């Protein structure tokens, strides 16, 4: 009985954390699966913890539902394990992501702007790209992103200005791809810029994106014919890190199912 109460307390605390995490981010207008799912899972945990006895009494009278309930928790446990494996892969994959010293081009993938400024996630990507550019001044930087809804400047323009202001990178070293609205288009449209500078898909390229996004970005790049690249993951801001990782889990699975790579 004591162990049962302890387990219910743990479930309640986890549920409350998940619920508040999703709820607060949704209030900040971050509507996506990475925020909605924690909120819903947290709500289920809270209800289960507070109504454990009632649920068990109800299930005892409905054996078919009880089996369904038990199988649901088993499948949920398997999903949690797969999610933790995915998170672990992201974490360890990005611990040693220093690019080689002869990079010819750095492609920075867009991640949204807000009121004319780089989002926190995008700023982290640009900071990482700036670090590489300072160490390898021979390389060009392609900043990639089109015009976001409600904005007057393209994402590429904001990214270029950020690198000039923060890292003092010369404007002539920054090439803008300002039409794309997705990772696939970021990489596809960048090919024309590479070609214009006598660089092919076999050029030594560092694709800079967020840590959670390296796996999918690399798969898309490989399908498009990039064959001499490395993906470099920038740290995701802690306030949205695990929500972004959760969203990417489903994005990667859906991309695989839809044959995007």
UniProtKB/TrEMBL annotation:
Keyword tags: Membrane, Transmembrane, Transmembrane helix
Q: Which CDD domains match?
A: YdcF-like
One GO process term, biological-process aspect: peptidoglycan metabolic process
Query: Which InterPro entries has this protein been placed in?
Result: Cell_Envelope_Assoc, DUF218, Rossmann-like_a/b/a_fold
Q: Listed GO cellular component terms?
A: plasma membrane
Q: So which domain of life are we looking at?
A: Bacteria
Q: Name one Pfam family in it.
A: DUF218
Q: Where is the DUF218 domain?
A: 104-250
Which PANTHER family does UniProt cross-reference here? ENVELOPE BIOGENESIS FACTOR ELYC (PTHR30336:SF4), INNER MEMBRANE PROTEIN, PROBABLE PERMEASE (PTHR30336)
For this entry, the protein name equals: YdcF family protein
Q: Which organism is it from?
A: Acinetobacter wuhouensis
